[in-house]
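Researcher: I've been going back and forth with a colleague about how L,D-transpeptidase might be arranged in three dimensions. Neither of us has a model we trust, so I'd like an independent prediction. The organism is Microvirga puerhi, in case that matters for your notes. Sequence below.
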Amino acid sequence: MRPLSLSLFLAATTLLAGCTFKGVPDPEVSSKDSEWMALVPSAQEDRRYGRYMMDDPTGEAPGTVVVDTKERFLYYVMPGKKVIRYGVAVGDEAYGWTGTARVARKAEWPNWNPPAEMKARWPHVKFTQGGPENPLGARALYLFDGNKDTLYRIHGTNEPEKIGLAVSSGCIRMRNIDVVDLYNRVDVNAKVIVR
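Model: Here is an independent structure prediction for L,D-transpeptidase. You can compare it with whatever you and your colleague have in mind.
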């Protein structure tokens, strides 16, 4: 190894030594989940956006969901100053949303009824029954500001190849297996912070 390459390797190794990433096993899923998730086109997984337990970079209370739109990560805060970090797709610049909300509702394989402003932009979008072709994927967490629906969701996707990108109309998209894992952990009324 050349001296410069060796120096870079040693520096990277030293930096990574302080990071504690631990993979999180897939959640148990129903036979319907398995069947429907198998029908969603698969994508080459980018390991940067995998599901990992790590030290908490958020400083928020356990049970809180924090979305870092710049880095494309969602953090679920655990006790003991740990988080589970998931890769996400976020809203593109024109449609991005930031703020604080709460999870008012949770749904498995939800129906999708696009909001009026989305239908105005894209007349081809229409109501879609829950299932593998539905853009909301396997699960959805409905975000409310008080008692008012923000129309933003944290949800699965039928386009897993877009995880890590800014492509949505403001919603937070996750791989279906990741949104099932998050859905199983998050309580109704959990605080959600989108930065």
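Researcher: What would you highlight for our discussion?
Model: I'd start with this: The chain has one domain: 20-194. After that, consider the following. The radius of gyration is 18 Å.
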